[in-house]
Amino acid sequence: MLTISTFNIQNNGKSYQQEKAVQIKKYLEDYAIDLLNLQEVFIPCENDLLKLLKDTSYRLYGTYRYKLGIMKRINEKTPVLTQKRVLFHKTYHLPFLPSLLKRIVTKVVIQEDDGRKITVLNTHLDYKYDITKKRQLNFLLKLISKEENPMIITGDFNLKNNKKIFLDFIDKLEGLGIYHVETSDKTLKQSKYKRAIDHVFYSKDFTLLDVKIVKDLLISDHYPVLVKIK
User: Fold this and answer.
1) 201 - beta bridge partners?
2) Residue of 47, 76, 86, 162 with fewest CB within 10 Å of its CB?
3) Rounded distance, CA 159 to CA 199, Å?
4) Out of 11-25, 58-72, 80-94, 195-209, which region has the weakest mean confidence (pLDDT)?
C-alpha cells in the first residue's frame, strides 16, 4: 500500500514561522505518508523542513523555479518528499506565457522493495489564464505519454473538476490508463463551491483504497488531499 498526499502549503512570506514546518513534519509522520507532494515550498520553510527531517529517512526532491537568489520572495518549488528509494528526479519548466510567473513540474522515479518502478509527477499550474493552463496540461500530457512505469500525478491544478479543459485532460489521461481521484469537497478554504482544485491521479496498475480531505491542518489556505492505493 502507498499513502500519498498533495498539499499546497501556502507561501506566506514575511509572516512565516517555523511552526509551519513542524506541522508538515507531524502530518507526514502521523499519517505515515510515503509520498508527500508539496506546492509553494519557499526557501525558509524548506530550510526548516530539512533540519527537522535530518534524522529521519525522508528526503526532499525537486528544484526551484528560479535560480536561488533570483526573485527570492516568489521563488518556490513543487517537491516530492519520500523515504522510498529514488532512482531519478528532475524539475521541468512549464510553458507560462502570457502569465509572467514561471511554473514547474517535478518528476521522481521511485523503486519499491520488489524492484517495481513508479513515476511520480507533482505540479502547480497557473492560477490566472485558462489558455496558459491548457498549454501546461498539454505539456504534462506529452511528459506522461512517454512513461512506461505506473504513474502517480498530483498537484494544485487551479482547476475545478467541472472545467472543460480539466475534463478534457481527465479524458485524455483515461485513454492512457490513468484515473482521477474524485473528491466531494473543496480543497481551497475560501472557495464558495465544494469542488477541489488540488488533484491526484493514479495508473490502472493501482487500486484506490481511500481518499480524504484533511480539514484539521490549519497552516495553509488549502486542505491536503490524502489518498491510499495498492
Assistant:
1) 153, 180
2) 162
3) 9
4) 58-72
Percentage of the chain modeled with pLDDT above 70 = 98
DSSP letter for 44, please: H
* pTM for the structure as a whole: 0.95
**Spatial distance between the Cα atoms of 95 and 89, rounded to a whole number of angstroms:** 20
The three-state secondary structure class of 35 is: strand
C-alpha to C-alpha distances, 221 to 132, 133, 188, nearest whole angstrom: 23, 21, 6
| Torsion angles phi and psi, residue 229, rounded to 5 | -135, 160
Query: Is residue 193 classed as helix, strand or coil in its secondary structure?
Result: coil
What does the block give as the cell for 212? 480524504
3-state DSSP: the chain helix, strand, coil percent, rounded to 5? 25, 35, 45
The residues near 28 (Cβ < 8 Å, ≥ 6 apart) are 36, 58, 81
The matching CATH number, chosen from 3.60.10.10, 3.20.20.70, 3.40.50.720, 3.40.50.300, for 2-229 is 3.60.10.10
pLDDT tens digits for 187-207?
Answer: 999 988 889 999 999 999 999
